[in-house]
Amino acid sequence: MIIHITRHGQVNPQALAKSENPDYPRGDPPISDLGRTQARLLGQRLKAQGFSGVIHSSPYRRTIETAHIIAEVVDVPVVPSAPMREVVMSEEQMVGFHGATVEELHSSFSRVDAGASCSTPWWTTGVESPDDVEARVAPLVDQGAAGSIDALLVGHGASVAGAVRHILRHGAPERRRHNEPGWNCALTSFRMAPDFEIIHLMDVSHLPGESVTSNAKPRDQVLAERIEEEKKDGSP
Fold first, then answer.
1. Is 199 helix (H, G, I), strand (E, B) or coil?
2. Is residue 17 pLDDT above 60, yes or no?
3. What is the pTM of this model?
């Protein structure tokens, strides 16, 4: 069986800049039109590969919206899965945050499984390290790896990195520090059984070059900033 992992589509820059949004509560902005296109293109790629498994998505709206678009293309349900949620990096980050219930998500996104078990509060409130994030996504990853059907995990930069790191830790530890940027709707795929195989690692070949982003930033800007940081650090 195969586990696919992806990050949500590009977040709407305007919504991200607003402190209050009546449709998307604080800390839970929508994805942009480009983000929806990214999700649809990823769905088409998965459909072409014959994906017909289950989609586990972080319950944040930007991830659920991404998963819903993919699910409509491949015709499968979306299961809100708290372990794939966003990382908390500061004590102030979650002040005033109120995540949606499964019922609320289902009312907005019909592909969400209304019977899924994801009780509130499903979000993290304390500050987390990368090891903390990996530890919380690990059981979901292991559950998927032990199953008989393929799965797609839709998360955020940190939860996607944690899931990928957990799989590589056991399957290919030498690849754990792959250093690939966390592109929106990139595809990472691992064959878990009968033999472990890295199929894709942060692959964006289904996205036109100008559609590759890391949240609001286009690929060229992200790579240029990385080069500048490496120069400052004295990296070769």
1. strand
2. no
3. 0.92
* Angle at alpha carbon of residue 25, lines to 23 and 28, rounded to 5°: 105
CA separation for the pair 159, 142 (Å, rounded): 14
**Alpha helices of the chain — where are they, by DSSP H?**
13-17, 33-48, 61-74, 102-108, 130-145, 157-171, 219-233
Separation between Cα atoms, residue 143 and residue 42, nearest integer Å: 23
Alpha carbons 152 and 226: distance in angstroms, whole number = 29
Q: What is the CA radius of gyration of the chain?
A: 17
Residue 71, token pair as written in the block: 């699910």
Percent with pLDDT over 70 in the chain: 92
Question: Which two tokens mark 223?
Answer: 């790579």
Q: Quote the distance between the C-alpha of residue 192 and its chain's center.
A: 19
Sign, Cα dihedral of 96, 34, 114, 48: negative
Residues 17 and 141: their CA atoms lie apart, in Å, by 33
- pLDDT confidence tier of residue 16, bands split at 50, 70 and 90: low
Residues 2-207, CATH architecture: 3-Layer(aba) Sandwich (3.40)
* All structural domains of the chain with their residue ranges: 2-207
